[in-house]
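Catalogue entry: protein

Sequence with per-residue tokens
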Amino acid sequence: MSLGQQLHPHLPFLRRYARALTGSQAHGDAYVRATLEAIVAAPEEFPADVDPRLGLYKIFHAIWSSSHLEDGPVLSGADGHEAVAQARLARLTPLPRQALLLTALEGFTVDDVGYLVGLQPVDVEALVEEALSEIESQTRAKVLIIEDEPIIAMDIETIVRDLGHEVTAIAVTREDAVREAMAERPGLVLADIQLADDSSGIDAVKDILAEFSVPVIFITAFPERLLTGERPEPTFLITKPFQRSTVKAAISQALFFDEATAPA
């Protein structure tokens, strides 16, 4: 099997991580593209002693860290959420956020993350705690949950409330979701894909976004269906079955990049 064939299944998830890290689809995809170009230009330098996914993320981090840490995220014509993300990224220490996303969102062990960022596992654990502390200091938000499975909805509601946020409603259909969003405007939406009446959470989110801007986290058992390479794609996406830490990390990151949660 060629190196390209080995890496192909991991690219949607690297792109998800890159967007969560930068807060921008365009920005994240640019770093993934640079990563692939570097691998194509020098395939012999690809790490041969680790799992292909780990090696892929290692190359990505080498490129992202060198350019980001030296120059900061700079995109021409940035506005809205992208501008907020750039302003905050310029101030926030990158390593804690990387450690949190790599463990909670991407599922790497602290040993793996230590390899990726060049630190000892104990230092990675400290970085995760630092990131959580920084993120939890943000302004609280009102959250709309769009989920038709009662047990999952209750679990998500508990996670949201444990983080100090307020749940405005739990909607089970597209119609319910739009009505609840219009009744009390949320600061964050957590949306499942398939809803109770066979309506689509994606369509519900589109209807809501047509009325006002709000960060959205999609929840799905099939993330590949949303990470197709076509635009627009969700910046924040978690996979069922999910870990509570994954949901917490996604919520915190989504609010971190939203201009309504704190001044940029």
